[in-house]
Amino acid sequence: MRKTIGTIQTDPAAKHRVRAKYAEDPALLMVAAELVAIEFKTIAICQRLLA
Fold first, then answer.
1. Whole-structure pTM over 0.70, yes or no?
2. 12-24 vs 27-50: helix axis angle to the nearest 10?
3. Which residue among 10, 27, 36, 38 is buried most deeply as judged by most CB within 10 Å?
C-alpha cells in the first residue's frame, strides 16, 4: 500500500507536509488505504467479468 500512496502523491515535499497530519489523525491514512482497496476490488471484479 505504501507504494500505491507514493504513486498517487509523487511530490516528496507534499508527502512530508501531510505526515504530521497522519501522525495526529491516522484515520486520514486509513481512508486512503480504503480507497486503494476499493480500487483493487473494482479491478478484480472487472477482470472476472471480462474473463
1. no
2. 110
3. 36
